[in-house]
Amino acid sequence: MSTAGRSRHWAQINEVSFVAGMRLLFGVYRLFGRLPFRLMLYPVLCWYIAANARARRASRDYLEQVASHRPSLRLVTGLPGVMRHFAAFGESLLDKMLLWGGLFPTGQVVLSGQEHISQAIARGQGGLIICTHLGNLELCRVIGRQHPALKLTVLVHTRHAQAFNNLLAQLDPGSQLNLMQVTDMSPAMAMVLADKVAQGEFVVIAGDRVPVSPQPRVARAAFMGRIAPFPVGPYVLAALLQCPVYLMFSQRTGDGARLSFELFRERIALPRKQRTPCLDQLATDYAARLEEHCLQAPFQWFNFYDFWADSAIDEQHAPH
């Protein structure tokens, strides 16, 4: 297959095309519990993996890259690893449904680094939170609803996953309330977000997927031993907002989860003459933190496309 065929943009991939199967499995969980859910999950996974060669190949390549980068992990690769990777993805989808269905044990979510956010809230100060597709991103939204002082606006591009988001909305119409669809960051949208931050709110944006654009603006950084493209949008937005920037990572742990916050930068400045090296350094620092958390739970990073494929993007597409 050609490189172009292998490097299809993530937004063109319907990563939840087995949503009908997940709806059925959610019913199984509610009636019988998690073990029967897991037993029935594998036929759904087998069908999905067999039908989606691109996602299967991306999972295999990612796991092999992690294994070669950190041999001491003794990571399961090949088809068994792919099955385990997608099983973790299926578990995460169930957890999302449980969260919005009021069935997830939020009391078993362990928080770390939350003092960074608490101190900002106490000062009436908003900020930007850069998240990842590691673990369960829904945790920040649910916990945000449990703590009224924490106001979140999550920037998303979810049209490729509309069926699953409709399912979440059926479980809880409030699941869609703090989402803002973003394809490109316009000046008008930046002003809206600046107002939110000025009012002490927090904007959440993913840092591990390139923009939905024919000419994405990216920085390059080492990730798992190879150079990969990372979006510059979070850092450009942070420079516009002139607010503290935090990182957020989540990880499933047994019957609960861990949600970690880190202070990334007090402020981000992008001098015109040093813009590109500054963006590359920010992406490098972010990629290093993402890598460390991914190595703790490699099967919980859910980017089922060729993450490194666009590292040869022509320089005209890079930020200037």
What report would you give on this structure?
The chain has 320 residues and is an alpha/beta fold. Helix content is 46%, strand content 17%. It has helices at residues 3-6, 19-32, 34-51, 53-69, 78-100, 114-122, 138-146, 162-171, 187-198, 233-241, 275-296, and strands spanning 109-112, 127-131, 152-156, 179-181, 202-206, 218-223, 226-231, 245-253, 256-265. Strands 1-9-8-2-5-3-4 form a 7-stranded mixed beta sheet, with helices on both faces. It starts with a helix and ends in a 24-residue tail after the last helix.
Keywords:
alpha/beta, disordered N terminus, 320 residues, globular
What percent of the residues sit in helical stretches (DSSP H or I)?
Answer: 40-55%
Beta-sheet strand percentage? 15-25%
CA radius of gyration is: 19 Å
Number of distinct beta strands? 9
Distance between the termini: 33 Å
Mean pLDDT: 83
Overall 3D geometry?
Answer: globular
Uncertain residue segments = 1-17, 311-320
- Helix/strand order, N-terminal first: HHHHHEHEHEHEHEEEHEEH
Strand order of the largest sheet: 1-9-8-2-5-3-4
What quaternary form is this? single chain
In short:
46% of the residues lie in helices and 17% in strands. It has helices at 3-6, 19-32, 34-51, 53-69, 78-100, 114-122, 138-146, 162-171, 187-198, 233-241, 275-296, and strands at residues 109-112, 127-131, 152-156, 179-181, 202-206, 218-223, 226-231, 245-253, 256-265. The relative contact order is 0.16.
